[in-house]
């Protein structure tokens, strides 16, 4: 008997809540459909006068939904001093909370970065979180070593690589030409900067009767290129007068999937005993040589 009574009480509370919301919608002078479906169209209806210096902070944007219309929050959001989270659509009809006290003011909600587990300590306005995430230096990257599942920001990834994966090529210095080699049977050759531990990969893909060489930086793929490189394929006796050269920006890769990029096409005849000798120079964009 008590079970049915509890169910009835819960249904009664839910009905009461809906009825209360209906009366609040009437007080705002809008239809319920307009208030719950017009979130995107009303995103620009607030003014800078609505902003407050007291900002609420949350650990994740995924936990935020409007306490009034229950929609996921995608745009400007506000919180009253009693903890009610409201979307712009519900908040823009009035300068006060539509759930509790009429004169309660709202403040812009702040959230932690998605990459907080990887070291980012930034707490930013909810409306700016996507812009921040797209440029965050703590965005995790997958280790370029085949069969390794380690993920971390580029600094921690460089430290991981030095400890767990011996380099075949000695670490290089930026803005200086260094010699390296590529094995015809290897899909990737991994390089590492000596000053900052940043990782780079020379890919060697088969393309018809050629080997296609490209260079990538292990870093967040959504960020703009931060490096440029020059690559010079050294000829041997048979092709002493034919030098292959390439200069381009270094594309960022964070998941061992290497997209199409600038490349040198090298004939198998350039490989001597399965090895191809090359000169490489990697420089930071905007850095003084």
Automatic annotation (TrEMBL):
User: Which keywords appear in this protein's UniProt record, sorted alphabetically?
Assistant: Metal-binding, Zinc, Zinc-finger
Claim: Zinc-finger is one of the keywords in the record: yes
Q: Which residues form the SIAH-type domain?
A: 108-166
State a single Pfam family of this protein: Sina_ZnF
Question: Could you state one GO biological process linked to this protein?
Answer: protein ubiquitination
Write down the superkingdom of origin: Eukaryota
Question: What GO MF terms are annotated?
Answer: zinc ion binding
Which stretches does UniProt call biased (Acidic residues)? Answer: 31-56
Q: Where is this region: Disordered?
A: 1-56
Q: What does this protein do?
A: E3 ubiquitin-protein ligase that mediates ubiquitination and subsequent proteasomal degradation of target proteins. E3 ubiquitin ligases accept ubiquitin from an E2 ubiquitin-conjugating enzyme in the form of a thioester and then directly transfers the ubiquitin to targeted substrates. It probably triggers the ubiquitin-mediated degradation of different substrates.
Name listed for the protein in its UniProt record:
Seven in absentia family protein
Q: Which organism is it from?
A: Medicago truncatula
């Amino acid at each position: 008997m008590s079970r049915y009574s509890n169910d009835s009480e819960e249904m009664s509370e839910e009905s009461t809540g809906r009825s209360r919301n209906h009366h609040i919608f009437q007080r705002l002078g809008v239809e319920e459909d307009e208030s719950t479906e017009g979130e995107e169209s009303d995103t620009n209806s607030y003014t800078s006068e609505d902003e407050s210096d007291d900002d609420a902070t949350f650990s994740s944007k995924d936990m935020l939904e409007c306490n009034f219309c229950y929609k996921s929050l995608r745009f400007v959001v506000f919180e009253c001093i009693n903890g009610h989270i409201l979307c712009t659509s519900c908040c823009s009809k009035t300068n006060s909370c539509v759930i509790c006290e009429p004169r309660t003011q709202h403040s812009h909600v702040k959230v932690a970065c998605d990459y907080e587990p990887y070291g980012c300590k930034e707490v930013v306005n909810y409306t700016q979180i996507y812009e921040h995430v797209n440029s965050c230096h703590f965005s995790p990257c997958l280790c370029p070593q085949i069969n390794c599942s380690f993920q971390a920001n580029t600094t921690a990834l460089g430290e991981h690589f030095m400890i767990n994966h011996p380099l075949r090529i000695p670490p290089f210095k930026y803005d200086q030409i260094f010699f390296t080699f590529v094995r015809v049977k290897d899909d990737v050759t991994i390089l590492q900067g000596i000053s900052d531990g940043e990782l780079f990969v020379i890919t060697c893909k088969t393309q018809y009767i050629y080997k296609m060489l490209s260079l990538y930086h292990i870093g967040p793929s959504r960020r703009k290129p931060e490096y440029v490189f020059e690559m010079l394929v050294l000829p041997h006796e048979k092709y002493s007068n034919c030098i292959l050269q390439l200069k381009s920006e270094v594309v960022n890769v964070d998941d061992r999937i290497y997209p199409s990029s600038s490349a040198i096409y090298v004939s198998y005849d350039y490989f001597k005993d399965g090895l191809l000798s090359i000169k490489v120079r990697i420089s930071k964009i905007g850095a003084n040589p």
